[in-house]
Structure prediction request, 150 residues.
Amino acid sequence: MTAKELAILPHYYVMPLELGMRDTVAQGMTGEETEQMREKSPRWFPEPELDIYRDIDIFAGKKVEVPLFYVTGTKGWLIYQHPGSIDKMKDACTDFRGMKWVEDAGHWVQRKKPETVVERILEICGQAVRAKRHWINAFESLCNWKQLII
Prediction:
């Protein structure tokens, strides 16, 4: 990422080492906003949960080895920070199942459009159930066919 590209990122995307997420975001707020954020954010993302990102380097070079379906908002910055990041995500997965865009939502898509995210998850689960049913039916047909020969 170039210095010019880095300069246009929201300040909370590149957090100072000594600050946590709440304090970094609070730098861009004033008065009542800051207090509201400090009161609300511990419930949905406390510091101990954010600390998990400090060790993210241990996953460098490893592939995601579980099925992955990516749901993201059209207004999120993460996908625009690095052109080609969606293709890189596909390459980083052994079982990439696809992605869905959610209109008028940003990075925290599940907070902005929870109903739409649930709909997407149910679509994905439905696809998995239909695929499983297809293979079960195919296997049962094969077993029935073999019984006719025996």
Q: What stands out?
A: The helical segments are 3-7, 21-26, 31-44, 47-50, 78-81, 85-91, 109-112, 114-149. Strands lie at 68-73, 96-102. The chain has a mean pLDDT of 79. The chain has two domains: 17-60, 62-150.
